[in-house]
Amino acid sequence: MTLSQKELDRIRIIGALVEGRMTNREAAEKLGLCQRQIIRIKKRFVAQGAAGLVHGNRGRTSRRRIGDEVRESVLKAYEEVYYDFNFSHFAECLNEREGIGISRSSVVRILKDEGIRSKKSVRRRPKLHRSRPRKVAAGMLWQTDATSFEWFGRGNGRATLHAYIDDATGIVTGACFTENECMAGYVAALGMGIEGYGLPMAIYSDRHTIFRSPKARAQDDEDRIEGNERNEGNERNKGNEGNEAGKGEPLSCFGRGLKDLGIGQIFALTPEAKGRVERLWNTMQDRLPGS
Description:
This protein has three domains: 5-53; 68-113; 142-287, 2-Layer Sandwich (Nucleotidyltransferase, domain 5). A six-stranded mixed β-sheet has the order 3-2-1-4-6-5, sandwiched between helices. The protein contains ten helices and six strands. The model is unreliable at 219-240 (pLDDT under 50). The protein starts with a helix and ends with a helix. Helix 1 packs antiparallel against helix 2 and helix 2 (24-31) crosses helix 3. Helices cover 39% and strands 11% of the residues. By secondary structure, it is an alpha/beta fold.
């Protein structure tokens, strides 16, 4: 029987205790145990020798060990059906679709033992910008964007998903698929959000010509939805909210529609500024194709 260094140290100390070269208190301090536990270990050592200090489950198969059939089923499901899923999503599908009751940690252990890594197990780059605090109430600000992706699985063509996400709650208020990024997609998704959640106070978008007329004059960083005055450099370091559509400037068709509804417009100066909707794409691109 092979003993660990910890077990060898315990045998040496308990042996000295039995020979009278050490007290119960001294042995307890060296092993980090209480004196009552030392007395029990000493009795086992006297009765059984060194074997009495080895854990009783050494060499036995755990009752909680996942069976080989379950392991094979998990691996087969991942390799044949769920190869494009991350580990968390895969574990959910095993429980909900395949009828295999297994925890996420067990799934991760099985896959990693086979050398399989989650597609999300990548090192994240450090944040270069401080996160902007969320709005304090739902409906104060909706972030919007669109992205083209193979939403219906590999080889099934690309589509563009337009979506709005509430800045305060993180709820996706509306989403719509179209062939390309277009005003119709944004309008349809906005209509879903208004029908389900009411009118937002402002829409936060990039400077695409759908949102901002190409004839609009450049704006300073002074006009904001919250009335704070900061320069562009400070904004980028403190979570920039962008520029609010200026009064009297030319509006796009979409901008005129928002104005008629009493909805404000804010334009992001950088993609990082509207990080909530950008992170939404990571989640949706990870989950929707498999669903």
